[in-house]
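Suppose a colleague, Dr. K., hands you the sequence of a protein chain of 150 amino acids and asks what its three-dimensional shape might be. Before reaching for any lab equipment, you can write down a predicted structure in token form. Begin with the sequence itself:
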Amino acid sequence: MDLNDIMRIPDVQGFADTRQLAIDKVGIKSIRHPVRVMDKNGGAQHTIAVFNMYVGLPHNFKGTHMSRFVEILNANQREISVESFEPMVREMVKRLEAETGHVEMTFPYFISKKAPLSGVGSLMDYDVTFVGEICDGGRYRFTMKVLVPV
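The predicted structure, expressed as tokens, is then:
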């Protein structure tokens, strides 16, 4: 196959989709990205988060540009908080012209704790997951899960 053959391959993505099928979930999964997680006391912690980002597309779309998901992560300047999560999810839905959106971010969060008997301080890591969703005509729902070692 030479360059002329490649140039004759039709751009299937550019054709209209006549099947009238909506796409429930399209996106990226298990993308590792550095973040700075803000806490309620105004402090911050640098960590690595694993992101899953999905959108639901209307029937007239055949797919989406996967690179836009990573652009949205980069646009948040690596600072994420409970408060900044909703605008990020809304921006994703808007930029991808989607009807629904779902972002999961899982990361380790460290807290200094003292041992009950010895009083020796050490860092304990907690697995934290933020889930933000846009559904039902633009309604936002946020869930946070914390896995506590016992």
